Structures are given as C-alpha cells and as structure tokens.
Amino acid sequence: MSKSTTTILEINSFSSPPQKITPNLLPCSIKHSGSIGPVSTSFWNPKISEDGKQVSFFRGRKLKGKTIKLPEGYKGVVGSVEESKEEEEDVVIDLDKEGGKLKVEGEFEEVVVWGMTEEVEGDDDVYVRGVEEWIEMSGRIHSFGEGK
Question: Helix (H, G, I), strand (E, B), or coil: what is residue 101?
Fold first, then answer.
C-alpha cells in the first residue's frame, strides 16, 4: 500500500529573502484592509524612554510596549494570499482544499504588544497569553510522543 501526500498549504518566499519585520499589536481595532502606502514617522514612531521602556503615541494616546521574543526554533511570518485570476471581495485560504498558496512578505522573531498607559503583563493580556499558549500547544503536538 503506497501513501500519497497532499500539499495542504504551500508557503512561498520566492527569489528574494523575506524582509525582517517586527509586528506591533495595538490595543485597538482598525477597520481597514488593504494597502496604506508608506507610513510616516509622524503617525508611528516608537522610542525607548529614559527608564528603558518602549513608548509611543497613537492618535494622541500614550502606549507602552512589551517585546515578546519567540522561542528558539520558532519563526513568525507575515504572508499574503497569491492573487488569483478570479476577483473576489474576500479571499479565504481553505486549508481543506489542496494547493493553497501563501507568499511570505516578512519574517519576525519578536512581537511588540502595546498597552494603554502601562506595559502589558503576560497573565492579563489576551495577546501575550494567546501567543504563549499557542507556542506551548505547538510544542506538544510536534513533540512526537517524547514524554511530554
């Protein structure tokens, strides 16, 4: 009996290496998807304060950032769906279908999570907790029964 393999999701980085980026998770919701063009530093310009903390302002509100490094052996990617010939209003990657393609636009090894007026704490912030829980679960399902 031979086993056949099916590609569920193909991740392409193409000919040039992906750009190194640092995603920023802001405590707000932005109802826009699509290109915004170049971002001016007058809109987003995080700085290190005198006490060594990350500080920035967004629409007049002070934010404090906390950097979360991904564990060794992990790499985050920012991807985009390869454009299809068909025009659709919303593009959905269906992982149950064969041959989904995701183009890698950038890679990251850390994420900055921003809080309103104070630095986020791991136990209190939904994003920090979600990243930590995902990494723990990922480690367990990929451990191949190594006693974990």
Answer: strand
Mean per-residue pLDDT of the chain: 76
Compute the radius of gyration of the chain from its Cα atoms: 19
For the record, the structure tokens of 38 come out as: 């170049």
Global pTM value: 0.68
- Domain spans, the chain: 10-27+43-82+100-119
CATH class of 10-27+43-82+100-119: mainly beta
Q: In angstroms, rounded to a whole number, what is the distance separating the alpha carbons of residues 38 and 99?
A: 32
How far, in Å, CA of 35 to CA of 138, rounded? 31
Buried b / exposed e over 41-68, threshold 16 CB at 10 Å, is eeeeebeeeeeeebbbebeeeebbbbeb
Position of tokens 């064969």? 98
